[in-house]
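Q&A log
Question type: sequence-to-structure
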Amino acid sequence: MFNYKNSQVITGNFNGSVFINFIVPIRNRKRFVDINYQSFKKSALLFYKKHNLKIVYTLVEHDETSQFVEYAKNKKINYVFIKSGEEFNKCLACNAGVILTNVAKYYIFHDVDCIFSEDFFENIYKNLLNKKTKALQCFQKRRVLYCDFDITNNLIEGKVDIRNIIKGQHKKNIREGHEGAPGGSILVERQLFLDVGGYDDHLFSGYAPEDKYFWEKLLAVYERIDSADNPIVDLYHLHHKSLARNVKEFNEAYESFLRLSKEQKLKKIQKLSEDFKNIIKHYRT
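Response status: OK
Response body:
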């Protein structure tokens, strides 16, 4: 079991529960952090003014050295640093955000390379109300919209506003991804997250099928994951070199889980859930 006390919680106000804890795991990709946060800030502020429901931004960095202490302090956001010379472990970072920061009704686990419009949280909220769901992929059709190299640089440098992209002014720079993506941005109700045992940091590291594995656990327990299409929500994926790898042992872990019967899956998940809830209890008491 990872000792979360080794995590250095640098900054943030972790007291009190919130409506959504928006957790962004990161290693490197420094150039994406600010545009991701600014995308969040505009939408979360508008949502709070309308509904008086608090959404917090939690940046969890898993790396050899911390790069975002001052940034987090200046922006007054939650920040957790996990020191590691090993490969990036997204699962570990997501779990740390839940264990060490604000308790929330919902968690959104969101990739730093994805940005969105100002009405993002308002439309996510409407999807929650319309679908009455506990698990929601925060974009429509299970696919993201990919920004090319040029439009990504222009967005980061402030030469292009995402509102212009939404209006269709840069169609040649945007392409639709293939449907079926399990990652990117997913909302999970807190109890459901505990019931599936969180993410599986003991199984995966690097860029591996951790999202697919988590997705299948959600389906085994809750039997549905809705897409944000009522109203429609789009997610814009910034351009970068792919770091996805095809690691045999990770694929085997995922495929082995798929081969289990429903009863076997639930039994396995129950044990993971019990272990994860004990970890939560350990760090929360």
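Response note: The chain has a mean pLDDT of 90.
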